[in-house]
Amino acid sequence: MTQISVVGCGNMGGAFIKGLQESGEHTVTACDVDPDVLDAIAPYCDETTTELSVAAEAEVVVLAVKPDLVGAILPDLELDADQTLLSIAAGVPTDLLESETDARVVRIMPNLAAEYGMMAAAATESTVTDEVRAILDAVGEFVEVPEAQMDIATAVNGSGPAFVFYLINAMAKAGVDGGLSEADSRTLAAQTFKGAAETVLNSEKSIEDLIEAVCSPNGTTIEGMEVLWDSDVEAELGEAVAAAEERSKELARDADGE
Ligand SMILES: NC(=O)C1=CN([C@@H]2O[C@H](COP(=O)(O)OP(=O)(O)OC[C@H]3O[C@@H](n4cnc5c(N)ncnc54)[C@H](O)[C@@H]3O)[C@@H](O)[C@H]2O)C=CC1
Ligand SMILES: O=C(O)[C@@H]1CCC=N1
Hints:
Blueprint: E1 3-7, H1 11-23, E2 27-31, H2 35-41, E3 47-49, H3 52-55, E4 60-63, H4 67-73, E5 84-87, H5 94-98, E6 104-109, E7 119-124, H6 130-139, E8 140-145, H7 150-158, H8 160-177, H9 182-202, H10 207-214, H11 221-230, H12 233-257
Parallel strand pairs: 1-2, 1-4, 2-3, 4-5, 5-6, 7-8
Antiparallel strand pairs: 6-7
Helix pairs in contact: 7-12, 8-9
The structure holds 1,4-dihydronicotinamide adenine dinucleotide and (2S)-3,4-dihydro-2H-pyrrole-2-carboxylic acid.
């Protein structure tokens, strides 16, 4: 059981808190400047505060504010060497964080599915500790990568949920166009993505072999796959990931210039 505080309880900080509460493994203090945000998160944590000094008492302080606020907040967040600053801010490098705090710094990139214990996260391998591994384990899965890979990880698993929501929506809309109700099509499309993801995670087959397993000879799937193979969908998705990666690098350059 680790005492955790989360500074910034918006979309990502809030999802992290809800996931941690569900796991029941840690105590959580929620800190935000917005009292409405704190009212909304209060049922999911042990304590709420608007004071950074209260958040600074935790063993692990999760910094979950927008990247451009990190530089302004860190000097006021007085942490000691025996504490951990767990930063989730996109594009903010470890060395910059270390220059503003005495705490041990661990930079990670989580995602919104932390709320449901299904987060995919990347943690910087040179700094991650067992204490942080236990926190990440409580809300999903994580990989450990060199810091140089944090920008691409940010694009794949941090921004990735938005890209997948887009694809689910496209599939659901196609179902509605074919006559399904919106509710049924949303359920079928989302559960199909969830089931396909579980299959990839659990199967030893390559993704190409899994596609082949769905394509019955002379069946329906191969007709749809021919359309996808002939299209630019793969390249366009690659460009979306590359654009998000480039923005993460740009945020790092901005942070360095501050
Ligand atoms: N939204 C997402 O899916 C993901 C976001 N992130 C990272 O998480 C961080 C937060 O992003 P979001 O949650 O999307 O932003 P958000 O805007 O939803 O939440 C930020 C929160 O910080 C609070 N805040 C602002 N100044 C503060 C201060 N001085 N003290 C305490 N709280 C303060 C705001 O009131 C707000 O509730 C960013 O650095 C982002 O890069 C990382 C992975 C995924
Ligand atoms: O869009 C963003 O900048 C944040 C970081 C990854 C997901 N959301």
